[in-house]
Structure formats: C-alpha cells, structure tokens
Design goal:
A hairpin with a 2-residue loop joins strand 11 and strand 12. The chain is an all-beta fold. Helix content is 0%, strand content 42%. The strands form six sheets. It has an eight-stranded parallel sheet, with no helix packed on it. Strands 2-5-8-13-15-17 form a six-stranded parallel sheet, with no helix packed on it. The protein has a three-stranded parallel sheet with strand order 3-6-9, with no helix packed on it.
Length: 191
C-alpha cells in the first residue's frame, strides 16, 4: 500500500518510524506501484526518519515535497521479484520546481533491492556502501546522487541538469569521500 508521513497542519513535527523486535515495513499493492510520501503543507517541513527495514514487493515511489532531509535507517530489500525505487518530489501529482530544495533523502544502510534506482528532481545522499541497491542508478530532471562515503559499484546514468542549492548547481553526481567503481554514462549534457 501507500504510506503517508507528515503533518497536515503548519506545525512541522518530525516523525520517526522504528522497527520493533523483528520484522520490517512491507510495501505491497494489488496493482501498480507502492509509495512512501513525506507530506508538507507549508514551505518548510520537518525531517522524518524511517528506522525500520523495508521490504518492497512492488516497485516503489518515494516522494517528498518537503525541504527537510528524509532519512532511511533500515535496509531496503525486495521480495522475490526484481524491483526498483524511484525517488522524486511529485507528491499528490504536483512536482516541485527543481530549484526548490524539495526532496532530499539520506540512505544509511546497505540495501539489497536489485531493480535499480531512479532519482528525479531530488537529491539522494549516502555515506554507506551498497546504499543505492545492486543495479544501475539513473539520475534525471534536476536530480542528484550524492555519495559522501563508501564504495559504490553501481553504474550511474547521468541524464540530469543537476541539483540546485544555495551553493549553486553542484551537478547530477556529487562525490565527496566516496569511491565509485562502476561505469558512469553521460546521456546528455549533464553538470
């Protein structure tokens, strides 16, 4: 199903969803894609954390229209099928402007899903080896992958104008303290 996390008022409380003694959050729908939406009704928003592991039984969209960083602490695994994850800021059918800083995610675990990662108009950061799963990472729109640590064996497909922030446009792939050992494919004039 779908998981909506956020504060519909303007108080901007942050939420944390942690695992119990065992098990994980299971994302499964009868048809289509499952989604995790970090909702924000105002211009700021709160940082939220999902500390529990997540098992995806369908392709999943992870979206945020929130300017704060959304953190995943537990491992993301797929069920018996090859499934991928799309990160974007298109919550409720409305995509935020690329320069809005809306849609920032941090992955803090090695993840084993193997259907690929798509990053579209958001930033997905990690300091953990294997955090982008085991397949290719495709960066589109004004998206950015930001590995700031760990060794990443993924192929990176750059088809993005890059992430815009207060320091300027820091590109589709920002590397700081990480090692990339996979192929990097430029699919357009990317920054």
């Amino acid at each position: 199903g779908d998981l909506n996390i956020g504060d519909s008022a303007s108080s901007f409380f942050g939420f944390t969803l942690n695992a119990g003694t065992s098990g994980s959050l299971i994302m499964d729908v009868a048809s289509g894609s499952a989604s995790i939406d970090f909702l924000n009704s105002g211009t700021n928003g709160a940082a939220n954390t999902i500390g529990a592991g997540i098992t995806i039984n369908d392709a999943i969209n992870i979206r945020s229209n929130n300017a704060s960083v959304q953190t995943f602490g537990g491992a993301i695994t797929d069920g018996s099928a090859t499934l991928g994850i799309t990160f974007n800021n298109d919550v409720n059918g409305t995509a935020a402007a690329a320069a809005s800083d809306q849609g920032q995610f941090v992955l803090n675990s090695a993840n084993t899903y193997d259907g690929g990662t798509t990053i579209s108009d958001v930033r997905v950061s990690t300091g953990t080896a294997g955090a982008y799963g085991s397949a290719a990472v495709s960066i589109t729109g004004a998206g950015q992958a930001y590995p700031f640590g760990g060794t990443h064996t993924n192929t990176f497909n750059l088809n993005s104008t890059g992430w815009v922030e207060s320091a300027g446009n820091l590109g589709a792939l920002r590397i700081e303290g990480a090692t990339l050992s996979g192929t990097i494919n430029l699919q357009r004039d990317s920054q």
